[in-house]
Design a protein that fits this description.
Two copies of one chain form a homodimer.
Chain A lengths: L1 H7 L7 E6 L14 H4 L3 H8 L2 E6 L9 H8 L11 H8 L9 E10 L5 E3 L7 H11 L7 E9 L2 E8 L29 H17 L8 E9 L6 H4 L4 E4 L3 H9 L3 E2 L6 H11 L5 E6 L1 H8 L2 H19 L5 E5 L16 E7 L12 H4 L6 E3 L3 H8 L9
Parallel strand pairs in A: 1-10, 1-11, 2-13, 8-9, 8-10
Antiparallel strand pairs in A: 2-12, 3-4, 3-6, 3-7, 5-6, 11-12
Helix pairs in contact in A: 4-9, 5-9, 11-12
């Protein structure tokens, strides 16, 4: 099917705008209550929904809460099962690190340990990013024969380590127990393929502990999400789209880079995102705009703050529409109900607006409203097919 | 799944009537408007919808507009990806030409060329069918060692050419550039497998140009859609159905023949279709009734004329119901919105009525009404499974 679809796609200049409010889907706090989205005052989104086709989508499968990377991959039209992306790769791509085929990346946390070797703080007292950067330089002295080790700062206590060499593999387990009061685990291979990498990671930890000895609170390292680069076809090849990512957070820029989007840098907030869109509008035909804080507030369990974030986005909708996108999709990558303080499996509301559609005439944009939309429940990966079709980019199949 | 389903099917005399209004799905002209079907006055269909189960269906995939052949194959319960049908085969089957395994068919247009060899009219001044038939006889003189060439008239300037011989293949590109002022392309092989057929086609063109030299405006030929016969299991084997096609247009008779339906000839219009149904009602248990003009008017961009065609069909619904089908499905093979003047990817409304169902109680038969129907959106290939089940032709699965 994928190949057939690909063979039907034609290029044109019609513009698709994909606005993602991270973790948009929510839950009512009580069984007779409203969700965050249903609670928010969203006159612009409601008006849009009235003249749009609506539905709910499921990124992975019924009952499965997606992580951010698979959620976004699905929105970009890639089946997350076909392209599993480890956390290490997301971290590396997020900081623009040029990973090569065969590299293995892992997320690295600076942490605190006591003399017995037990972890006392998994975040090293939340050291600032500048200090993290200096410590990454210190770890640059690690020397492992046959394996190059590259350590780069991400944010605060978070960094990224990339192992480069022959016959490496991501079949290595996390060293982070996610607990304090115990020592980190050794990096153990999860299959024979991981033996060499696990050995290198063990040696890395040993040398790192020596190098960080006098750097309390950052005198230990934890590693998670060993991952190789997936072989993902680029959006320009797969969908003939010239795609741009206008995102604030590194991880989302990372996923965008993986599928070959032009990632616009130095976009610190929503205001800058809109200015950026205006600036680059003529140069691309697919625009991914990402708003992080709906998810953050959901994870915090702060219902009202999530409502406020949705309302903040609603206020800029008219300025997005002023760009006159040929297709606009507004949705999320997964649900993050404040009630659960976590990603959840609940289907995510979406609306799609274009010239040639049958508007559902809903009175507002909400989970249960979209549940009455004409699309019902669709796999997330299908949304891009609708966007391509509604911007006249898909030829007829068969005679 | 297909084999499991097949093993569960039993034969009985209960009758299924599949009424297809070609290109039925439409779009509103303005975002607050109604579609063609929603606009049409359809008291009989509305009454039927009220007492039916309703939904929308998708023949190929989200965002993909189907051609007529794959759209109908899906309605007949065959996944169009499993059985790709080239245009040449559709044309040959449409005129009842008995293609054999290994034959390669192509559509042939008579065209006009100037002395320089450039095409001046891709339709040869739309010569009448009788003249087309005479010219096909003229082309009967083509003589290619080892390859039999059979040319048959279709309609107006359109004909069909079948190459018969050993080691032929449909890996040959179109010669029709779809432009005037340029010469036709040579029939080039698209892979090594197509070499022999391309050579034969080149020789055919060479001899045809000589034979047609004095037949201006029909002094050239264009070829499109080289195609081999797909290996499709017949409806009687796959679904144990004794199926009849009651269609006016050649192409739809062609697809019906491919799946082994009895194709009733000499059915010039809707009136004759109903008379035919009455005549053959006792001899079959599956009846495919096809109305072409909803699609034609949509392709013309004539919203009101498409509305009128739907109303014309609505008027005969009582006479179809008078046959007392055990199951009736009313739907289309794809959408052809007058607004787009083309096939589109928008889901197609359907209703299914039988004795043992849960009527949705909709107030009318329309796209957005059906969008609220209990079936939601289903793959087109599943409709026949519903029809089989609702006519008691499917055994229970498992103990």
């Amino acid at each position: 099917m994928e190949n057939v679809l690909q063979s039907l796609i034609v290029e044109n200049d019609k513009k698709i705008l994909l606005l993602v409010m991270d973790g948009l889907g929510g839950l009512p706090l009580t069984s007779d209550g409203l969700t965050e989205l249903e609670t928010a005052k969203t006159p612009a989104l409601d008006e849009l929904a009235k003249n749009a086709e609506c539905g709910l989508h499921i990124p992975i499968d019924y009952g499965i809460a997606p992580g951010s990377a698979p959620g976004h991959l699905a929105l970009f039209g890639y089946n997350p099962f076909d392209y599993p992306i480890g956390r290490g790769v997301v971290a590396a791509m997020g900081i623009g690190f040029p990973m090569k085929a065969g590299d293995v990346a892992a997320r690295l946390n600076f942490a605190s340990r006591d003399d017995a070797g037990n972890i006392t703080d998994r975040r090293a007292g939340r050291i600032p990013t500048e200090q993290c950067a200096k410590l990454c330089e210190v770890l640059g002295k690690v020397n492992i024969p046959g394996v190059e080790v590259l350590v780069r700062p991400v944010k605060d206590y978070r960094a990224c380590v990339v192992f480069r060499g022959r016959d490496l593999s991501d079949h290595v387990a996390d060293t982070d127990t996610q607990k304090t009061g115990v020592p980190p685990l050794d990096p153990e291979p999860t299959s024979e393929k991981g033996n060499k990498t696990a050995e290198a990671a063990k040696e890395f930890v040993k040398q790192a502990l020596a190098l960080l000895k006098d750097h309390h609170p950052a005198n230990a390292v934890l590693m998670r999400g060993f991952a190789e680069l997936p072989h993902i076809p680029l959006m320009k090849d797969r969908f003939k789209l010239k795609a741009a990512a206008v995102a604030v957070y590194p991880d989302y820029k990372g996923v965008s880079r993986l599928v070959g989007m032009d990632v616009i840098e130095d976009v610190p907030d929503l205001e800058a995102q809109i200015a950026t869109l205006n600036r680059i509008w003529k140069d691309h035909n697919f625009f991914f705009v990402h708003h992080k804080y709906t998810d953050s507030k959901g994870e915090d369990g702060d219902f009202q703050a999530k409502v406020a974030e949705i309302e903040k986005v609603d206020k800029v909708i008219p300025r997005l529409l002023a760009l006159k996108p040929d297709v606009i999709i507004v949705t999320g990558d997964h649900s993050t109900p404040a009630k659960m303080k976590a990603h959840s499996s609940h289907p995510i509301p979406f609306l799609i607006r274009a010239e040639c559609i049958r508007p559902d005439g809903l009175t507002r944009f909400g989970e249960r409203d979209c549940g009455k939309g004409s699309w019902g429940i669709v796999p997330t990966t299908k949304l891009i097919q609708l966007a391509l079709a509604y911007s006249d980019k898909v030829l007829k199949f068969g005679a």
